[in-house]
């Protein structure tokens, strides 16, 4: 991150973690456990001055029949925004 910062490069941090920290698009939910994982990631990266944004729900809604998951992405966005 410091190397990127020194080069003037800003980053977008994806809060979803493969395997244990992302929403299941087939059975979406938003839990306090998932929020805690997102907050943990935010806390790690908050010390860097070149974080442009945090990404919530990357690739959760990828098909027309998956729009039910959008409600959970919206809840995640609301809670992350409140934390920030």
**N-to-C SSE series?**
HEHEH
- Count of distinct strands: 2
**Radius of gyration computed on alpha carbons:** 14 Å
Distance between the termini: 20 Å
Low-confidence stretches: none
Number of separate structural domains: 1
Strand content: 5-15%
Averaged pLDDT, please? 90
Widest β-sheet, arrangement of strands: 1-2
Percent of residues in helical segments?
A: 25-40%
> Given the structure, what is the number of helices?
3
Q: Strand pairing plus helix content: what structural class?
A: alpha+beta
* General shape: elongated
How is the main sheet built?
Answer: 2 strands, parallel
Short description:
This protein is α+β, with helices and mostly antiparallel strands.
Task: Explain how this protein is built.
39% of the residues lie in helices and 11% in strands. With 84 residues, the protein is α+β, with helices and mostly antiparallel strands. The protein has one domain. Strands 1-2 form a two-stranded parallel sheet. The longest helix has 14 residues, at 32-45. The mean pLDDT is 90.
Question: How would you summarize the topology of this molecule?
Answer:
Elements: H1 2-6, E1 11-14, H2 32-45, E2 51-55, H3 70-83
């Amino acid at each position: 991150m410091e190397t990127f910062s020194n080069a003037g490069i800003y980053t977008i941090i994806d809060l979803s973690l493969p395997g244990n920290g992302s929403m299941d698009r087939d059975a979406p939910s938003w839990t306090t456990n998932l929020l805690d994982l997102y907050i943990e990631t935010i806390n790690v990266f908050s010390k860097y001055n070149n974080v442009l944004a945090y990404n919530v729900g990357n690739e959760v809604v990828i098909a027309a029949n998956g729009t039910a998951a959008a409600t959970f992405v919206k809840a995640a966005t609301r809670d992350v925004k409140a934390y920030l």
